[in-house]
Design brief:
- The chain is of the alpha/beta class and about 250 residues long.
- The chain has a single domain, classed as P-loop containing nucleotide triphosphate hydrolases (Rossmann fold, 3-Layer(aba) Sandwich).
- It has eight helices and twelve strands.
- Helix 6 links the parallel strand 9 and strand 10.
- The longest helix is centred in the middle third of the chain and has 15 residues.
- The N and C termini lie far apart (about 40 Å).
Length: about 250
């Protein structure tokens, strides 16, 4: 059975404050696949996540991005979310005064384009909280206000669970997490994956990949993917680092 393509990035180029960061990046993710992009600091990993989600601070200067065959670079961020794209931020922001339950319901209403009945929403929310092993009192707290690093990332996973995206991008989800919190968040991600969904992990370290197992690893250096492979590539990077890829990119 052939897989459908979910996300196709073709020769993507992007600037921030006039500096070119992405320099011709191409990547294809099919349904049911988990991909990981790894690279040194400043290689363009978070720029890719921001460009995919439509952060207006980044200027796309070339290439295209297709989500389920539909061009998305001309869409606003909310339109991309409604089309099935989800981004978990490296540093989620706090929204004091807005409870997580209200935030999630408004987000789901916006995605579906209709007001979801309260009973239906509560059933969905509680079902996903049980899957993620999240205490129900958690939803009554203000969004990320006073949350620990692990709680912020669990809140992001709950958002992903409720919105049920087709394509999820996790931008350095392991950032700021201790081992226990990392394991908990990874278990949550694994529980949400399904055969029709795609997942792109953006990370600096191999440790996240001990818990979420990608089939494909890509090395990003100086705005381009310079090497792709299987899980063994992540182990190689953990042992030898990025030096040889950076040196090759510098002389290319």
């Amino acid at each position: 059975m052939s897989k459908n393509t979910l996300l196709e990035i073709r020769d993507l180029r992007a600037n921030i404050v006039g500096k070119e960061i992405l320099k011709g990046l191409s990547l294809t993710i099919n349904e049911g696949e988990t991909h990981a992009i790894m690279g040194p600091n400043g290689s363009g990993k978070s720029t890719l996540a921001n460009v995919l989600m439509g952060n207006p601070n980044y200027e796309v200067t070339g290439g295209e991005v297709l989500l389920k065959g539909q061009p998305i670079l001309g869409m606003a961020a909310d339109e991309r979310a409604r089309a099935g794209l989800f981004l978990a931020f490296q540093y989620p922001v706090a929204i004091p005064g807005v409870t997580l339950v209200n935030f999630l319901r408004q987000a789901l209403n916006a995605k579906r384009g209709v007001d979801v009945p309260v009973r239906e929403f509560r059933e969905l929310l509680f079902k996903q909280m049980d899957i993620l092993k999240v205490d129900r009192d958690f939803a009554r707290r203000y969004v990320n206000d006073g949350f620990s690093g692990g709680e912020k990332k669990r809140a992001e996973m709950l958002q992903m669970a409720v919105l049920e995206p087709t394509m999820a991008v996790l931008d350095e989800t392991d950032s700021g997490l201790d081992i226990d919190a990392l394991r908990t968040v990874a278990e949550g991600v694994n529980s949400l994956m399904n055969p029709g969904m795609g997942l792109l992990l953006i990370t600096h370290y191999q440790r996240l990949l001990n818990y979420i197992k990608p089939e494909f690893i890509h090395v990003l250096v100086d705005g381009r993917i310079v090497k792709s492979g299987g899980p063994e590539l992540a182990l190689e990077l953990e042992e030898s680092g990025y030096d040889r890829y950076e040196a090759a990119a510098a002389t290319a």
